[in-house]
Design brief:
mainly alpha
Length: about 80
């Protein structure tokens, strides 16, 4: 009996660690893309490889939305 409950606890701990890692991964990506938007907002003329700053910002915001969806799904389903 004890071995079975220990296994279940280990599985639960691993599950929690995996979910937490996914959450932290998504948060990190959100912060990275938010920072990119802040750079565009602060200095749009200084971004030479992105002549269309609005489009570049939109791409960053879409990435934020993608990772926010991951956070929302983890919270809702797990």
């Amino acid at each position: 009996m004890y071995a079975k409950s220990t296994k279940n606890k280990k599985e639960y701990d691993m599950r929690e660690k995996m979910i937490n890692a996914m959450i932290q991964h998504a948060i990190g990506h959100i912060e990275k893309h938010k920072m990119n938007v802040e750079v565009y907002l602060a200095n749009p003329e200084g971004i030479g490889e992105h002549p269309d700053v609005f489009e570049a910002m939109e791409q960053e915001i879409m990435e934020i939305a993608k990772y926010q969806d991951v956070l929302d799904m983890l919270e809702k389903h797990f």
